[in-house]
Design brief:
Helix 1 crosses helix 4. Residues 1-5 have low confidence and may be disordered. The protein has helices at 7-34, 50-56, 85-95, 108-133, 149-160, 193-200, and strands at 39-40, 44-49, 63-73, 77-83, 137-139, 143-148, 166-176, 179-189. It is globular and about 50 Å long. It is 44% helix and 27% strand.
Length: 208
């Protein structure tokens, strides 16, 4: 049918708009939290297979910081905000304005700030998706870990059960002057959730 001919393009247009609105909401929330202007670039949005996720963060053995949580409601799933250690340190120094001695281990205050930033991002993107779909979706309390990317994603599988085959990736870039600090936000809906999300938007769900 001609109506659905470009459903894949329409899907991506909708998801990009979710990313744009989520980034705007997150920048506003972070600005209020930190009492300073926060700039975020227009995010890059992709639909990935689950196998492609670890490749996007540098491989299964890449050491990363990850804020992860469970999405509950009508379209449940799992959500990860992933940063390299360098990006985490730069984010805390440049965006949050924290003084950090050393480049490796973060202290309790820094980890708490990183967790809160991840939580704000998660809430912003999730509320944007919920508004677009009119589905009830809300995050659980986030947890923060530093480990190899494969181990963190594997823990998510063990903790939350079977993940779906598809993931929504939103590349989030914070801007501080000419410097860019990139983090990656993955929403991995449960197997039955992606069809619900797209059907609520009037878009047939397929894997094309």
């Amino acid at each position: 049918m001609e109506l659905f001919k470009n459903s894949k393009d329409f899907k991506m247009d909708v998801l990009k708009e979710v990313g744009n609105i989520g980034a705007g909401n997150a920048a506003t929330a972070l600005s209020q939290l930190l009492n300073k202007p926060i700039d975020m670039a227009v995010p890059k949005v992709q639909l990935l297979s689950f196998e492609e996720i670890t490749e996007k963060v540098g491989g299964a053995e890449e050491l990363v910081y990850a804020v992860f949580l469970r999405v509950e409601g009508e379209a449940p799933g799992n959500l990860f905000f992933i940063l390299t250690p360098d990006a985490a340190v730069n984010l805390l120094k440049r965006v949050a304005g924290l003084e950090i001695s050393g480049e490796s281990e973060l202290g309790e205050m820094e980890l708490s700030a990183l967790n809160e930033i991840g939580n704000i991002l998660a809430g912003s993107y999730l509320s944007s998706l919920a508004d677009f779909t009119s589905l009830s979706m809300y995050p659980t309390v986030p947890a923060l870990a530093m480990d190899m990317a494969g181990a963190i994603l594997g823990y998510g599988l063990l903790q939350f059960g079977q993940m779906g085959d598809d993931a929504l990736l939103i590349d989030t870039t914070f801007l501080e002057g000419k410097d860019e600090i990139e983090g990656q936000f993955f929403l991995i809906p449960d197997p039955e959730s992606f069809p619900k999300i797209f059907q609520s938007l009037g878009v047939p769900f397929d894997n094309d």
